């Protein structure tokens, strides 16, 4: 289920003027109130909480600045987490010891893995989440994180100073100015401000600024960013109305029950907090021609639809669905908002009609005939910053030590925001420690795909993760995110706890051992057939079959295999996750070998670094068209691989860049050598002359 | 998309030249690549009425001005008559038509100039020398114009290969085929397949990313499956066709075979119009396989003369017979030669039974070997013709000695070879490159995996692989293309 996420975050936060200044809540009770931090994170949404927690985990003294502590961890749009592609991101966030997966395991009310029948590489972990519980659990987590301080306050401006000469960028951020005029200094700043930039709410023909009146702090910050020269674009999204639960006739609708057993999001959760039988169901209903009629008759009352601003193609409002795919019945999922909530979220009914028409539309849908609308749906239009202005570590090209994460980069979705948050928090911390950035390649994770797409291609619609965006989908699976990222996070960054590291290490060695045992067990096909009559093994095959090959059969799992050959295999079925992961490894074994080759090729091309300080506009020694120069100047690709993915950069330009990089490298190598052994170089030079 | 691009880049980066040893900065070695200006005779070598010399690169305008001084550049893309003279000595070279194509609207995308000069060798070499004396110009490497055109996005990969064919076309049939390929007909065909495949993949991807609780229409997967099946059929048919294209490039293999002393070598010499094989009245004169490339009725062919087929000769001749039989199996067309006056002899009868009869019968897969039966030495026959023999298949009468029957043979050869090579002016564009065949086969294999796989992620991977193979021929193949189709075809998301 994919839908508008995050969209109302700042709406809720900024509609109230209440502001507590300098009220600090620290997980580190011994820490004195400081005015200087290593990392400041602005915003307490899904990107902000992950960024702040990640920076603190890396050992940086971190300050989270938010309008209101009680909105930290607010799910402003849909009451669910995960899904296809999004579940993959959550697993990766968890592998780096991020928060959202663990919090979801403590806050869900309906856990269901999507795509169960389509292969484990595309399983989509998903759950309906209790908004209140999620917020409570997230706040508890944030407020108890060592090294992390939370302060209420609105940021008015950035403090900028001279740039560090060894890095690119025209200035360096060194702190923030709050609305009350006070300043807080920091070595890095992460901006996760969602839709704060000129956010506007639209219902029918009414439009009002999401941040009310001129004293909003986001206005000042927006001005600063614009003055610095950041390129701004505009996007729109929307959210459906909310309906009173007791006014819906569920008895005539299709009921969807949760999985039994529930699969937790986090690698370190054994189970989720709630038993399947205690979880809440979802219900399915459909639109009908009557809905189309109301939408089509009232287009003139709908300014959100008329706007040319790009909305998401995959999260369309009911208006755009009716316009683009007329005469069809569209699905509407009725989702619970929480255990004790009396609201229902009609997923699929995002709408910006005037409120009274929304109610009229709702009541012509089956099951909703007597439905009471508690809150109307609305559209949100907001500015975002072209993500080609940030590096793969999410630092901006323009301002040193300033990081962007979340919706500000043009993405949509809680999970996309969380994924960027973790990376921005880690890198903000690494930057303070003058350590090299932590970049996830597109060969290593969906996080890498997400950030590479954003930083090289940019986006002109709210960007959402799909599994089809990942080239190496069979390798980047939800089940193996820990083996891809946990070790890197532990060794390179230190953002992973000892407990998680040990768990991942145990899993890794158990898997390796299990696979080699499965490879070593060989019987004839007829013997296998006798041992496991359920399997559709054809007996004609003359070659012996390995247990690993038998495990590939759809009907065979580790349990069945361990019953057939108990001696060496029994110990691998004691852990549910291990048994399941062995089965998955078996399914993809043959294809993964080839995919590893391709991954190596891509990694080679990513190893060809382009110098960071290259001035493409004036670069003399390379023949490049002005158009290509501008594109490279804007995106500043860090590798030849990234440059080749920028649309409009011709193969000729890549060859020239490649040649330039090679000669620069050789020149550099020659210079280095020159300083070491002058004489040697002279002799080799003479040799080369003779060759020429 | 990006992987494909990388391959191209890597290929282009390697380039035709050997790696240049690293030189220190400021050595003054010109940077190879699009910075330099290249020139070449592009109308082929040898005697001709008009020869065309081309330049490409930033110094093209300068070169054109230098040779046509004191006149300025002609208007873009219109032919002008100019007196060409050597820029150094001022010596007049030729009166020629010149054309000026400022980039990017030119063949290579760079600034280009064309000199249409009189075709004498002295004029051509004079103009080439003059161009070589212009600073910044150097002779082009083979195919360099085309590579530059490709690098600037002026040609698709298919077109580049078609162009390479054009350059190397030696016979009329090859030229016709190369022209067709340059028109992008093969490209169109591949693009069509790639379009079908992309759509099928998009539907499978949509089913994976949205199928669970969005209401995709019923039967999305079934539709993709049926599209894949159709594609399999089309590719399969084309790949069987593709072998014909291959033959055209290197020439069809025509093997002359028969019993000893039937006149095979005489026939080879007659067809190739040169004494390829030693001819003697003694049986067993030809002991090895002799090959000669010939132009047979407008088609390139590789003509093989073989040892006469008989048992019980010496070890050398036996080896010759073994090689002859081997060659017979590889032949696209067999020219079976018999002595018309000696049809009843054991060696003739044996040959008719073991070679001629099986070839005519054909194999169950329809891949029967083509064979023309030639009865030589018609001059030795009595006026009534050969002995009436009811079992003898249709044949041609020929006298290598007098040349009688040669026209009939050539006409029969033209018909057979047109079948073997495919008629490039009427048939579908043939796949003339092994590379194409390789990728089409790879595509077909991957589609096979798709249909056999149950795990949908694996099945989609097979389709991605198949699409990657086609993209190697047509270019393109990005993810965004897939997403565009998904959002165009389906109402997804809520």
UniProtKB/TrEMBL annotation, chain A:
One of its GO terms (cellular component) is cytosol. GO terms for molecular function: flavin adenine dinucleotide binding. It comes from the Eukaryota. It comes from Panthera pardus. Residues 586-659 form the tRNA uridine 5-carboxymethylaminomethyl modification enzyme C-terminal subdomain domain. Homodimer; forms a dimer in the presence of potassium. Interacts with GTPBP3; forms the GTPBP3-MTO1 complex composed of homodimers of GTPBP3 and MTO1. InterPro entries: FAD/NAD-bd_sf, GIDA_C_N, MnmG, MnmG-rel, MnmG-rel_CS, MnmG_C, MnmG_C_subdom, MnmG_C_subdom_sf. Keywords: FAD, Flavoprotein. GO terms for biological process: mitochondrial tRNA wobble uridine modification; tRNA methylation. NCBIfam families: mnmG_gidA. Its cofactor is FAD. It catalyses: 5,10-methylenetetrahydrofolate + uridine(34) in tRNA + taurine + GTP + A + H2O = 5-taurinomethyluridine(34) in tRNA + 7,8-dihydrofolate + GDP + AH2 + phosphate + H(+). Gene3D superfamilies: FAD/NAD(P)-binding domain, GidA associated domain, C-terminal subdomain. It holds the Pfam family GIDA. This is 5-taurinomethyluridine-[tRNA] synthase subunit MTO1, mitochondrial. PANTHER family: GLUCOSE INHIBITED DIVISION PROTEIN A, PROTEIN MTO1 HOMOLOG, MITOCHONDRIAL. Belongs to the MnmG family. Component of the GTPBP3-MTO1 complex that catalyzes the 5-taurinomethyluridine (taum(5)U) modification at the 34th wobble position (U34) of mitochondrial tRNAs (mt-tRNAs), which plays a role in mt-tRNA decoding and mitochondrial translation. Taum(5)U formation on mammalian mt-tRNA requires the presence of both GTPBP3-mediated GTPase activity and MTO1 catalytic activity.
TrEMBL record, chain B:
Transmembrane segments: none annotated. One of its GO terms (biological process) is tRNA methylation. Keywords: GTP-binding, Hydrolase, Mitochondrion, Nucleotide-binding, Transit peptide, tRNA processing. It is found in: Mitochondrion. SUPFAM superfamilies: P-loop containing nucleoside triphosphate hydrolases (SSF52540), TrmE connector domain (SSF116878). It catalyses: GTP + H2O = GDP + phosphate + H(+). Residues 251-418 form the TrmE-type G domain. One of its GO terms (cellular component) is mitochondrion. One of its GO terms (molecular function) is GTP binding. Its cofactor is K(+). Pfam families: MMR_HSR1, MnmE_helical, TrmE_N. HAMAP family: GTPase_MnmE. PANTHER family: TRNA MODIFICATION GTPASE GTPBP3, TRNA MODIFICATION GTPASE GTPBP3, MITOCHONDRIAL. GTPase component of the GTPBP3-MTO1 complex that catalyzes the 5-taurinomethyluridine (taum(5)U) modification at the 34th wobble position (U34) of mitochondrial tRNAs (mt-tRNAs), which plays a role in mt-tRNA decoding and mitochondrial translation. Taum(5)U formation on mammalian mt-tRNA requires the presence of both GTPBP3-mediated GTPase activity and MTO1 catalytic activity. Homodimer; forms a dimer in the presence of potassium. Interacts with MTO1; forms the GTPBP3-MTO1 complex composed of homodimers of GTPBP3 and MTO1. NCBIfam families: PRK05291.1-3, small_GTP. Belongs to the TRAFAC class TrmE-Era-EngA-EngB-Septin-like GTPase superfamily. TrmE GTPase family. This is 5-taurinomethyluridine-[tRNA] synthase subunit GTPB3, mitochondrial. It comes from Panthera pardus (Leopard).
């Amino acid at each position: 289920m994919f839908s508008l996420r995050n969209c109302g975050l700042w709406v809720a936060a900024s509609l109230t003027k209440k502001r507590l200044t300098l009220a600090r809540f620290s997980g580190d009770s011994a820490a004195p109130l400081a005015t200087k931090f290593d990392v400041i994170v602005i915003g307490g949404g899904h990107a902000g909480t992950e960024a702040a927690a990640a920076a603190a985990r890396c050992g940086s003294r971190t300050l989270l600045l938010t309008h209101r502590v009680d909105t930290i961890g607010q799910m402003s749009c849909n009451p669910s987490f995960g899904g296809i592609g999004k579940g993959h991101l959550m697993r990766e966030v968890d592998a780096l010891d991020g928060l959202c997966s663990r919090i979801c395991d403590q806050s869900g009310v309906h856990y269901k893995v999507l795509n169960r029948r389509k292969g484990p590489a595309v399983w989509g972990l998903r759950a309906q989440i209790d908004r209140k519980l999620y917020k409570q659990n997230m706040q508890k987590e944030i407020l108890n994180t060592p090294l992390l301080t939370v302060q209420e306050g609105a940021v008015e401006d950035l403090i900028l100073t001279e740039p560090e000469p060894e890095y690119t960028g025209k200035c360096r951020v060194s702190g923030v100015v709050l609305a009350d005029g006070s300043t807080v200094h920091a070595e890095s700043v992460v901006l996760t401000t969602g839709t704060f930039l000129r956010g506007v709410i639209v219902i029918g023909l009414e439009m009002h600024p999401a941040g009310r009146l001129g004293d909003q702090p986001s206005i000042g910050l927006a001005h600063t960013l614009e003055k610095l020269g950041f390129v701004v674009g505009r996007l729109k999204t929307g959210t459906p109305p909310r309906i009173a639960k007791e006014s819906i006739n569920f008895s005539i609708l299709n009921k969807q029950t949760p999985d039994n057993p529930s699969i937790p999001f986090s690698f370190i959760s054994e189970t989720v907090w709630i038993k399947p039988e205690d979880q809440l169901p979802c219900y399915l209903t459909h639109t009908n021609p009557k809905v189309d009629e109301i939408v089509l008759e009232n287009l003139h009352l709908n300014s959100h639809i008329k706007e040319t601003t790009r909305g998401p193609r995959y999260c369309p409002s009911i208006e755009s669905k009716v316009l683009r795919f007329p005469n069809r019945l569209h699905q509407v999922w009725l989702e619970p908002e929480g255990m004790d909530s009396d609201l229902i979220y009609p997923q699929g009914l995002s709408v910006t009609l005037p409120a009274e028409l929304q109610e009229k539309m709702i009541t012509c849908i089956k099951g909703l005939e007597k439905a009471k609308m508690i809150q109307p749906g609305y559209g949100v239009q907001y500015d975002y910053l072209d993500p080609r202005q940030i590096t793969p570590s999410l630092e901006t090209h323009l301002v040193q030590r300033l990081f962007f994460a979340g919706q500000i980069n043009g993405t949509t979705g809680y999970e996309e925001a969380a994924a960027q948050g973790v990376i921005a928090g880690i890198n903000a911390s690494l930057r303070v420690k003058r350590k090299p950035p932590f970049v996830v390649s597109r060969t290593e994770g969906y996080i890498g795909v997400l950030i590479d797409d954003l930083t090289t291609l940019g986006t002109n619609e709210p960007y959402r993760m799909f599994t089809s965006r990942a080239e190496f989908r069979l390798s980047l699976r939800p089940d193996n995110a820990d083996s891809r990222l946990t070790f890197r996070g532990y060794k390179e960054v230190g953002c992973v706890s000892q407990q998680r590291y040990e768990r991942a290490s145990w899993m890794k060695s158990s898997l390796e051992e299990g696979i080699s045992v499965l490879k070593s067990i060989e019987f004839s096909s007829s013997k296998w057939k006798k041992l496991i009559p359920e399997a559709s093994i054809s007996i004609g095959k003359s070659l012996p079959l390995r247990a690993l090959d038998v495990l590939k059969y759809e009907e065979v799992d580790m349990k069945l295999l361990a019953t057939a050959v108990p001696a060496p295999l029994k110990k691998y079925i004691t852990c549910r996750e291990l048994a399941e992961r062995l089965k998955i490894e078996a399914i993809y074994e043959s294809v993964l070998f080839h995919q590893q080759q391709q991954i190596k090729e891509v990694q080679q091309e990513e190893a060809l670094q382009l110098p960071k300080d290259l001035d493409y506009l004036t670069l003399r020694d390379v023949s490049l068209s002005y158009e290509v120069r501008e594109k490279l100047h804007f995106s500043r690709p860090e590798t030849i691989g990234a440059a080749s993915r920028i649309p409009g950069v011709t193969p000729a330009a890549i060859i020239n860049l490649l040649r330039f990089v090679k000669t620069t490298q050789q020149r550099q190598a020659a210079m280095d050598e020159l300083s070491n052994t002058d004489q040697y170089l002279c002799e080799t030079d003479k040799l080369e002359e003779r060759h020429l | 998309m990006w992987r494909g691009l990388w391959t191209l880049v890597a290929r282009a980066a390697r380039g035709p030249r050997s790696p240049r040893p690293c030189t220190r900065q400021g050595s003054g070695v010109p940077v190879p690549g699009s910075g330099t200006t290249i020139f070449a005779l592009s109308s082929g070598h040898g005697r001709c009425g008009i020869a065309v010399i081309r330049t490409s690169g930033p110094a093209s305008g300068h070169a054109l001005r230098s040779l046509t001084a004191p006149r300025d550049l002609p208007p873009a893309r219109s032919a002008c008559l100019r007196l060409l003279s050597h820029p150094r000595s001022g010596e007049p070279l030729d009166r020629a038509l010149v054309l000026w194509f400022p980039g990017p609207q030119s063949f290579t995308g760079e600034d280009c100039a064309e000199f249409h000069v009189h075709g004498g060798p002295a004029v051509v070499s004079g103009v080439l020398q003059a161009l070589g004396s212009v600073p910044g110009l150097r002779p082009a490497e083979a195919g360099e114009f085309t590579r530059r055109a490709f690098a600037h996005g002026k040609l698709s990969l298919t077109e580049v290969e078609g162009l390479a064919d054009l350059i190397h076309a030696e016979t009329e049939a090859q030229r016709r085929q190369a022209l067709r390929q340059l028109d992008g007909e093969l490209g169109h065909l591949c693009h069509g397949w790639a379009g079908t495949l992309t759509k099928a993949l998009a539907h499978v991807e949509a089913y994976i990313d949205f199928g669970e609780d969005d209401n995709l229409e019923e039967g999305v997967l079934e539709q993709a499956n049926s599209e894949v099946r159709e594609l399999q059929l089309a590719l399969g048919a084309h790949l069987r066709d593709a072998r014909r294209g291959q033959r055209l490039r290197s020439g069809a293999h025509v093997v002359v075979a028969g019993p000893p002393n039937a006149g095979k070598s005489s026939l080879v010499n007659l067809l190739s119009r040169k004494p390829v094989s030693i001819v003697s009245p003694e049986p067993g004169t030809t002991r090895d396989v002799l090959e000669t490339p010939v132009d047979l009725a407008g088609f390139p062919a590789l003509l093989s003369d073989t040892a006469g087929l008989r048992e019980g000769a010496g070890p050398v001749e036996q080896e010759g017979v073994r090689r002859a039989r081997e060659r017979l199996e590889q032949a696209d067309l067999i020219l079976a030669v018999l002595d018309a006056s000696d049809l009843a002899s054991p060696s003739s009868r044996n040959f008719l039974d073991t070679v001629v009869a099986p070839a005519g019968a054909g194999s169950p897969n329809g891949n029967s070997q083509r064979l023309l039966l030639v009865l030589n030495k018609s001059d030795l026959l009595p006026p009534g013709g050969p002995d009436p023999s009811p079992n003898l298949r249709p044949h041609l009468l020929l006298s290598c000695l007098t040349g009688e029957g040669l026209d009939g043979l050539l006409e029969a050869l033209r018909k057979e070879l047109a079948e073997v090579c495919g008629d490039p002016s009427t048939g579908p564009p043939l796949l003339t490159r092994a590379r194409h065949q390789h990728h089409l086969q790879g595509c077909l294999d991957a589609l096979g995996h798709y249909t056999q796989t149950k795990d949908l992620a694996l099945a989609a991977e097979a389709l991605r692989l198949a699409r990657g193979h086609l993209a190697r021929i047509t270019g393109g193949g990005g993810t965004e293309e897939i997403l565009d189709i998904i959002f165009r075809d389906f109402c997804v998301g809520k």
